[in-house]
Amino acid sequence: MNNKTGNTGKPTTIQLTGIKKLYKIGKEEVAALNGIDLIIKEGEFAALMGPSGSGKSTLMNILGCLDRPTLGSYKLDGEEVAHLSDDQLAVTRNKKIGFVFQNFNLLSRISALENVALPLVYAGVSRRERLEKAMHYLEAVGLGDRADHQPNELSGGQRQRVAIARALVNDPHIIMADEPTGNLDTKSTKEIMEIFENMHGKGRTIILVTHEPEIAACAGRQLLVRDGVITRDEGKGVVMDVV
Questions:
Q1: 3-state SS class at 164
Q2: Model pLDDT for residues 121-131, shown as the tens digit of each residue
Q3: pLDDT tens per residue, range 134-158
Q4: CB-based contacts of 172: which residues, under 8 Å, 6+ apart?
Q5: What is the C-alpha separation between 158 and 182, in angstroms, rounded?
Q6: pLDDT (0 to 100) of residue 138
Q7: pLDDT digits over 169-219, tens only?
Q8: pLDDT digits (tens, 9 = 90+) for 28-46
Q9: With CB atoms 3.0 to 4.6 Å apart as the test, which of 11, 68, 134, 185 could cross-link to 117 if both were Cys?
Q10: Where are the domains of the chain?
């Protein structure tokens, strides 16, 4: 698939070849993904769009190493990851990918600071270093003064900023965001998209799933998924109809 972002001289971060995801429903085999070929270069900001049932969420799960394809090749930074074990996928995710979700996925009984530090617990980082790094990233998203607040003491936009700080704390070079503005008001949406654009400006690769054409249009590249295949590959500013 063509790369329309002008990043052609940069290294390839993601390369999908012939990716299929098949499910058995009764005696029938259904293809959620039906032969995806895709190259994403280092530092791209790509948006995935598509109607309900198009396969975009399945594609996001495979890109994020949360699931494996039935067939095909997925090379992440040149390493074949399509058929790694669950443990190997978990290690790859923790090292290379930060996740941001629509519902924030914060733990309600601990502070913003402790939520941000959580991925570093799994990475075996000392408590002092965890809290220092977590505070650095909370400050980076403008929430240093809310470090001791629990999620229920924060607005939706603030909770999403905590989630972004948590995604960044392991310093991954890829950020996967699944409907990150879906539960936010207009002002918070604008603030969150500015943070994503800032991350992109610092060289991170960002893949964002959204059903909102105006949000997708902020990305440098827009990919439309229908019936398990990518049917359109557009540049920044095009407002695509997903219906």
A1: helix
A2: 878 889 999 99
A3: 999 999 999 999 999 999 999 999 9
A4: 95, 96, 97, 98, 204
A5: 14
A6: 95
A7: 998 999 999 999 988 899 999 999 999 999 999 999 999 999 889 999 999
A8: 999 999 999 999 999 999 9
A9: 134
A10: 12-235
Pairwise CA distance, residues 107 & 96, whole Å: 22
Angle between helices 127-140 and 112-122 (to 10 degrees): 130
* CB 162, CB 195: distance < 8 Å: no
- Per DSSP, the three-state class of 242 is coil
Helix (H) or strand (E) holding 35: strand 28-41
Contact of 29 with 228, CB cutoff 8 Å: no
Name the one residue in this structure whose structure tokens are 């960002």.
Answer: 206
Q: CB of 95 within 8 A of CB of 170?
A: yes
Rounded CA gap, 91 and 89, in Å?
5
Domain 12-235 - what CATH class?
alpha beta
Is the Cβ–Cβ distance between 150 and 181 less than 8 Å? no
**DSSP bridge partners of 101:** 178
Percent of the chain with pLDDT over 70: 96
Confidence of residue 9 (pLDDT cuts 50, 70, 90): confident
What is the pTM for the complete model shown?
0.87
Residue 67 is classified by DSSP as S
Give the closest residue to 49 by CA, choosing from 236, 233, 237.
233
CA-CA distance, 155 to 243, in Å (whole number)?
A: 31
Distance CA 12, CA 44 (A): 10
For Cα atoms 46, 117, 209, give the angle at the middle one, nearest 5 degrees.
20
